[in-house]
């Protein structure tokens, strides 16, 4: 019976958060967001070279900057910079107004808003000789 009460309380909390997110409307994502990613990779990437197809866990993180310059309702666009590279990004905020998807030139992201100025991001790309995954936070500056 206790498990049922906990499950019911969790569902009520989630419903309240969803209703609150929708009541506030689509979040404004315009601005500059920065965060450091630590990835696991297989094979070479434009950002890190590798001479093997074994998984690598680089100790050094990479700082990424996302500059969102345009937003129309739940859709947005801008530029991602990391190291010596810059890529165009496009994305969309989900109807729940707390999550979304984003694409850069060669990979895709999922994200959730931790709060109005913090994004939880996960990135992935998969090619025949190169794969990368990473999850991290980016803060609006």
Brief sketch in words of this structure:
This protein has one helix and nine strands, in the order H-E-E-E-E-E-E-E-E-E.
Average of per-residue pLDDT values: 85
The span between the termini is 46 Å
SSE order, as H and E? Answer: HEEEEEEEEE
Unreliably modeled segments: 2-23
- Walk across the major sheet and give the strand order: 1-3-4-5-6-7-8-9
The oligomerization state is: single chain
Which word captures the global form? Answer: elongated
The biggest beta sheet, please? 8 strands, antiparallel, barrel
Q: Report the β-strand fraction as a percent range.
A: over 45%
Number of helices: 1
Radius of gyration: 18 Å
Give me the count of strands: 9
Helix content: 10-25%
Helix/strand-derived category reads alpha+beta
Structural overview:
This protein is α+β, with helices and mostly antiparallel strands and 141 residues long. The protein contains one helix and nine strands. It has one helix spanning 2-24, and strands spanning 31-37, 39-42, 62-72, 75-82, 85-93, 99-103, 108-115, 118-127, 130-140. An eight-stranded antiparallel β-barrel has the order 1-3-4-5-6-7-8-9. A hairpin with a 2-residue loop joins strand 8 (118-127) and strand 9. The radius of gyration is 18 Å and the shape is elongated.
Protein traits:
single chain, about 140 residues, alpha+beta, eight-stranded antiparallel β-barrel, 1 helix, about 15% helix, elongated, disordered N terminus
